[in-house]
Design a protein that fits this description.
61 residues; mainly alpha; 1 helix; 59% helix
Amino acid sequence: MFDDLPPVKKNTQDFPRNLEALSVQDLEKYLEDLTLECERVKGEIIRKKAHLTQADSFFKK
């Protein structure tokens, strides 16, 4: 069914990065990007936990 979809390529250039080659400004931007990504991941965890809680309460009745 999904055989016609191209494989998902993992972007290995984003993480981890070679920090030695980055300037202070680039390091600050990289840290900002990582912080935003961490917040996005935390939001997804909260969303998934809420779904699990809803499913648990539905099936325990």
